[in-house]
Amino acid sequence: MDETGKGAGPLRILVTNDDGINAPGLAVLEAIAAELAGPEGEVWTVAPAFEQSGVGHCISYTHPMMIAQLGERRFAAEGSPADCVLAGLHHVMKDARPDLILSGVNRGNNSAENALYSGTLGGAMEGALQGLPAIALSQYLGPKNYTADNQFEAAAVHAVPLLRQLLDQMPEGEEDYRLFFNVNFPPCPAADVKGVRVAPQGYRRGPGFAVEPHTSPTGRQYLWVRGGDQRRPVAAGTDAAVNLDEYISVTPMRADLTAYDALADFKALERGE
C-alpha cells in the first residue's frame, strides 16, 4: 500500500484461482493485478496445477502438495486455492507478504449459493483469515457472453476502477474474522454493464446441485455432480438478481458462520453457572 494505506500503489499482489494455472480467467486477473499494482509493484501467482472448482475452503491437511516454479513470480501447486494462498504467504512470499490477495477471475458466477461451494471464494477467505485484504472475482456467463470471443470482457474492462474504489474503502486494522469481498461481473458485454450494486448473498430456489448416474462400458456405475439452472429466481436486490439485471455485484463477507439472529432463540438450552 502507499503511505495512506489505500490502493494507489505500488502494490504487491498475490493472485490465485480455482480453474487452474492455465485458465484464461487467470490471465485476465494477472493483467488486472498488473495494472492495479502499478509499474513499480509486483504480481505473484500461485495457482492450482489442475482445476479445483467446487472445493470451497478445502485445504490439503492430510497429505503434502508439490509446488513448481513455472516462471518469474509464477508457481503451480497441487492443491486447492486455499492451499495456494498458504503456499504463497508462507513459502513463496515468506520474506515479504503481499498487500492484497486476488482470486479468480472465475469462469462462471459465484453468486448466491454458489459462493458456498466456490474454490475462488475459498482462496479469498483464506487470505482474510491470514489477516490480508482479499477479493474474489467471478464472471457470470449467459446468452450474451457465453459464445463471445472474450467471455471475460466485462471483468477485464470494469475490474480495475472498481477494485481501486474498494481498496480505498477497505477497513484498516481488522482482527479475527476480517472482511473479504465477493465480486461478480454480469453476463453481458462490457458496454452493457449498467453499474455496480452492493448486494447481499442471494439464494436460488428450486433444484440446485444434484448427481446424475452413468454406467461405464465395463458396467460400473459413476455419479456426475451437476449444477442447477443459474437463472432461477432470487430475491430482488441480491447478488444474482443484480447480476442478471446487468450490474456488477459487490458482497462483503466474513468467515464467521454464526447465525447471530438465532442466538437469542436458543438461550433456553443453556445450563450451568
Automatic annotation (TrEMBL):
Gene Ontology terms for molecular function: 3'-nucleotidase activity; 5'-nucleotidase activity; exopolyphosphatase activity; metal ion binding; nucleotide binding
Domain Survival protein SurE-like phosphatase/nucleotidase intervals: 13-205
Cofactor mode of binding and number, as noted: Binds 1 divalent metal cation per subunit.
Principal EC category: hydrolase
Residues annotated to bind a divalent metal cation: D18, D19, S53, N106
Cofactor(s) needed: a divalent metal cation
InterPro entries noted in UniProt: SurE (IPR030048), SurE-like_Pase/nucleotidase (IPR002828), SurE-like_sf (IPR036523)
EC number, as in UniProt: 3.1.3.5
Coiled coil, from the record: none
Keywords: Cytoplasm, Hydrolase, Metal-binding, Nucleotide-binding
Principal location listed in the UniProt entry: cytoplasm
Places the protein is found: Cytoplasm
Family per record: Belongs to the SurE nucleotidase family.
Function: Nucleotidase that shows phosphatase activity on nucleoside 5'-monophosphates.
Protein known as: 5'-nucleotidase SurE
Organism in which the protein naturally occurs: Thalassovita mediterranea
